[in-house]
Design a protein that fits this description.
Layout (H helix, E strand, L loop, with lengths): L8 H14 L5 H4 L1 H4 L25 E2 L19 E8 L2 E8 L4 H12 L6 E2 L2 E3 L5 E4 L12 E2 L14 E4 L12 E4 L11 E5 L1 H11 L11 E2 L6 E7 L1
Antiparallel strand pairs: 1-7, 2-3, 2-12, 3-10, 4-12, 5-6, 5-11, 6-9, 8-9, 8-10
Length: 241
């Protein structure tokens, strides 16, 4: 649900995909013009352009559309805390990441819940951008950019988010609280507005593996430098702890 676009004109389409990933249902948000056409960062924040973090202990997971895989909703009261270690076992090697449950308990709670239900197993990272923004987008079992878990999660934003290499963040539509299961890994410094929840970091070896895969480029199916990665990145499993 990053889907939804991201940044420079050429990359906007990419971002759009990120955005599309964000709202991970193939209904409402994905059918909207905003999710299907590139737009400027200024327009990606929805009507108000303002975001507020979810209140402590109140994770408003809202059912929304048909799930790409049947999963239970995460617990509304976060069961995660502190740093949560996860490993994404992929076709380009293990990508080790640390999730920040202290800052983003709802997002991490959802990610961990999905991982423990094998939601990410046997999925393909469907989008790579190599111009303007530098991200690999994953988390859609359909590999179309429209799939999701059948619910949305609240934004958890400070308004000071930046996206250096190693950032792990949620994709979404242009609208607030529209994330689902799609996420993106930043493999090089990327200029994005602070509208995408940053919920963890990927370690240096993982970033290097993603960057090496990205060096083969994208198939340009969404525009120059934006499309499916030419070097496939398949997630075999996500292990927590």
């Amino acid at each position: 649900m990053l889907t939804r676009s991201l940044a420079t004109a050429a990359v906007l389409a990419c971002v759009g995909a990120l955005a599309a990933c964000g709202s991970e249902n193939d209904t409402a948000a994905d059918a909207s013009p905003a999710s299907e056409s590139p737009q400027s960062p200024e327009s990606e924040s929805g009507d108000s352009g303002e975001f507020t973090p979810a209140a402590d202990g109140e994770c408003a997971y809202v059912e929304d559309g048909n799930p790409s895989k049947d999963v239970d909703l995460p617990p509304a009261d976060p069961t995660v805390e502190g740093d949560v270690e996860v490993t994404l076992s992929t076709s380009i090697g293990d990508l080790d990441a640390t999730l920040d449950a202290a800052a983003t308990p709802c997002t991490v709670g959802s990610f961990v819940s999905l991982a423990e239900q094998s939601y990410f197993d046997a999925t393909t990272c469907h989008r790579l951008t190599t111009e303007g923004i530098f991200v690999l987008q994953c988390g859609d079992p359909t590999a179309t950019g429209t799939g999701g878990p059948g619910y949305t999660i609240p934004d958890e934003l400070s308004g000071e988010e930046t996206y250096p290499a190693g950032t792990l963040a949620m994709a979404k539509t242009p609208y607030p609280d529209s994330g689902g299961s799609q996420f993106f890994i930043v493999y090089d410094e990327t200029p994005l507005p602070p509208q995408y929840t940053v919920f963890g970091t990927v370690d240096a070896d993982g970033v290097k593996a993603v960057a090496e895969a990205a060096s083969a480029g994208a198939d340009d199916s969404n525009g120059p430098g934006d499309g499916a990665p030419r070097t496939a990145v398949d997630i075999e499993a996500v292990t927590v702890g």
